[in-house]
Amino acid sequence: MSLISKLARVLANHRGATDAARSYNRQKPSVVMKPKTGYEDEFSTVELILKSGAETRGVDAFALSLIKAERQARRLLTFLVFQSPAFGTADGRALRKTLASSKQVFFAGLIAGIDALAPLTVRDLVGPEYDRLWARFVEFARHRNKIFHGQLTVVGVRRNQLLQNVHDIQLWCESLGRGGVQELGYDGFDRNSFRKSTIGDLSSRLRIQIGSHQDYVTFLRAHMERRNLSKAIPNAPEAGN
């Protein structure tokens, strides 16, 4: 067989393989890609604790997971506030101080703030597991308060229960982060929450327009402080003293 004939056969075989691959790709079902979030990086330290075999891994992983859930909510709230055209890069520090100075804003208040601002509620962002997981956070608050006061044995929470708590917190954070990326352009995991969304019309769709630092202070008091939460979020988790 001549060299030209061999080359022609190779090219024919290559075309056949390419055509078969194209046909397969047209026939195989499309894969729905989940929005990418920073969940795995955020909870990598929790995973290290869970795999450590330490006697206190249940308590340690639970306490750290709660901190991460609150931090995610805090970042999502400040991200939404920062979407106002009134705020730019230079306002980040002042906005951070404004929230930090409020001593009556806890996890439930942050969720209430997101609900008051975002075009979709946290229930919408978390999805079908919201009701079950929110009821769990009410229970988590009791466990946390006992842990911080050294009274965990009073409520008889075993390690397996604490590990289940961790699983549910992780599910909440992952679901909220995925919904946040898709609907808001941010998952609450990246450290820099003072940035504008990649979703161009987000600021115009916010339920409340915050036009100044004083507006922000008023918003915190009206929608997020513990004394005003009974109507906004019934059965809200109580904060520790």
Notes on the protein architecture:
- Helices cover 64% and strands 0% of the residues.
- The protein is mainly α and 241 residues long.
- It has two domains: 1-31; 36-232, no CATH class.
- α4 (57-82) packs parallel to α10.
- The N and C termini lie far apart (89 Å).
- Residues 20-26 and 28-32 have low confidence and may be disordered.
User: What is the strand content?
Assistant: under 5%
Count of discrete domains = 2
Helix residue percentage = 55-70%
Provide the structure class. Answer: mainly alpha
Span from first to last CA? 89 Å
DSSP summary, beta strand count: 0
Low-confidence stretches: 20-26, 28-32
The number of helical elements comes to: 13
Give the H and E element order: HHHHHHHHHHHHH
User: Average pLDDT, to the nearest integer?
Assistant: 84
Tell me the Rg in angstroms.
Answer: 24 Å
Q: What's the main sheet like?
A: none
Overall body shape: globular
Task: Supply the key terms.
mainly alpha, globular
